[in-house]
Every structure is written in structure tokens, then in C-alpha cells.
Amino acid sequence: MIPAAFDYVRAGSAEEAVATLATHGDEAKLLAGGHSLIPLMRFRLARPAVLVDIGRLDDLSYIRDGGDHVAIGTLTRHRDVETSDLVAARAGLLGEVTSHVGDPQVRHRGTLGGAVAHGDPASDIPSALIALGATLVAAGPQGSREISVDDFFSGFLETALADDEMLTEVRIPAADGARWGFEKFNRRAQDWAIVGVSAVVRAGGEVGVGLVNMDSTPVRAAAVESALAGGASGAEAAELAAEGCEPTEDLNASVEYRRHLARVLTRRALEAAGL
Amino acid sequence: MEISVTINGTAHTHDVEPRTLLVHYIRDVVGLTGTNIGCDTSSCGACTIHVNGESVKSCTMFAVQADGEDLLTIEGLADGDTLHPMQESFRQCHALQCGYCTPGMVMAAVSFLDENPNPSEREVRLGLEGNLCRCTGYHNIVKAVLHCAAGGEQ
User: Fold this and answer.
1) What is the ipTM of this complex?
2) Model-level pTM?
């Protein structure tokens, strides 16, 4: 399976990448680690006329302590997130969730920003970003803007990023002393989650819960969070995990089975987080 | 587009189409056919090589992305006629049946032990989750990796 032909542009900076995107509009796609995009191109589900390779922008690969947050450059590879002491100490849920992405080979190449910008509802990482309340930083021709993770995912494989914008940084509000749980249900090693749940209980008691593959976008389990805030037990709140979700049916699971999984996995994730 | 890569210590420069996948470049242009193509969908790991010392599925990378990088394929693992300790462990533990997954499995296992030199059996199984053996010969593959981690020689 050979991808359709495309023009290849290697960007020397984020500004250059954005400028190239602005020239080509929706004909162009960014190439980072390529582990979401290249499979789509091989199936010819994606046929960009221009690929803008940002994989060599090493200045966008970093994990920094920002005081009240952890700042992670968009091109940071999964392996670096997974093994980072800073992430483990201040955003541990993200480190754990990242260690479940794909397989070691995928994590050596795939990038945090790529996984997020791809907008796949079955991807593990967005659930952690939702639970942790991340902020995403995007660069465009007019400069930078910040986007709350709750406003970022707009549809199946669609995000709030404009055609000429690129993700540059992910900011995680520091979660020192938090407890968390991540539950991923699948039938084969390395497979996508049939349903997954990220839950975090911050040191101050604030709870965040994000769901994988329960709707056309990654979603927040808002009903669970508000039930917990109102004094419900973890088990009681978990019963509300599928509320407001519109999961799809596929060969792995019916809609009702997905709803069931969301409730069970949320209970387990909350238990792991100490609730 | 012209690219220059080092494969198993030898420098290569070729003009490639941007859409050329790295595994096709290695097999069809450079002529190193030890790296196999299995599933073609980044699932099976048969095409695993090392890029700058880390295991990567070469079917999910364009050759242009490897420009300037240092690659290692199964052909570059042995030292002349002396097998790499992982290859020797696979031989001693009979860790192959049809052998199709073996080059990728060995390359993944070498990278895995670089990152985790003293793994548990469970860690080996998780560490090789990106590689499928359709003969389902996992038992001896896991044994071989543990054997290699323990120093190899019997």
C-alpha cells in the first residue's frame, strides 16, 4: 500500500511551517512522527497534496517545569513523556496513559502533539489531557493562542486548529500529590481501546475524568465529575459515566456494551485513584 | 529528493520519491531484504529496524524522514560470523518457527533490552507487544529474550 504522491517540504521552524500551511490551505498536512498520518495515507484515506515535515524542529521537543504547570513541546515523543521524571512527579496520569499508547516502536516515533492534533476519539492521550484540564497552545500566522482542551476536539478527527495553525505546546496544570487511574479495555495487545477511562483526583480533592472512544470526539465524563463534587461515592458516580455520550457500534462492541464498559471502567479508574 | 543515510555503518545516498516508505527503500533500493514486510499497517512489527538506536517500524516512516539518520537492520547486527547475543539466544532457545517475524522480533528485543536490561517475563511480553508471531511461538521468544538478558551462555 503506497501513499498517493505528494510534495514534501521540510520546515526549518514553526513559523516556516505555519507560513507553508497558510500558502496551501487544506491541501497541506503537517508530518511529525507520522504514526497517525502515514497509516491513513497508505489506505489513501488521507491524500494531502503537500506534506510539511516538522519532525526536525528539535526546539519543540521538551518537557519543562512551568511552576504551576508542566509544559511539553508538541514534538516530544511518547517515549520521552513516558519516561520523564518531571511528568511522573507533576502529571503522573499523563505518563501512565502514554505508556499504553500503541507499542514501543510507535512510542519511539509518535509525538504528543501529533496524537492530540489528530483528534482521534479512540486515542488514549486526550482522555488524560481532559482529566488533567490541559491547555493547548497553537501557532498561526497571527501569532499564538491558547485553547482549553474542552474546546479543542470538535468532531471525528477534527479539532479547533485552523488549516494554517499548528500545535506548539501542551500545558498540564501541575498535579503534585494526585492519585489517578487509567483503564483501557481491548482484546488484543497494542490495539486501540474499545473504551478507556482516565481519572485523576488532585491533592485538593478536585476530580477529572476523561473517556476514550465513547463519542465522535474524546469527551469529559461531566456527570461523573459533578456527582462526585456533590458528594456521591465513586461507585455511585461511575453509574453516570455514559451519560450524554453517543458512542458508535462497531465489530468490537455495541452501543450498549460501550456504555456498560464506560461505567465499569470508570468505577475501576476511580477506585485506583482512591475513590 | 536526495537523501543520505547510514545503514549498518555504510553510507548511502539516493534520490527517492517523497512517498517512498523507509522499508521499501531499504529492501528495493539498498537491497537489504532481511527486513520483512508483514501486515503493511504498522501492526505486526516484521519491518522493525533501529533508527538512531531505537526500534521503529520502517513501514510507517518515509525514507525522507530518515535523511541523515543512523539505521541498523538485521543484517548489521552480527559481528562478522559471530551472532549478536540476541541472535544467539534465539538460536539456543529455538525462538522461531517459520522465521518470518524473526528479524523484526530480534531488532525489537535488542532495543527493548537496551532500555530495560533486567526485565521480568511480563515486561518482556509487554515490550514485544508491537511484534506478532503468526506461528504463536511467543513462549520461546520470551525465553530467548530472558536468556539473553541473563547473559546468554548456557
Assistant:
1) 0.96
2) 0.96
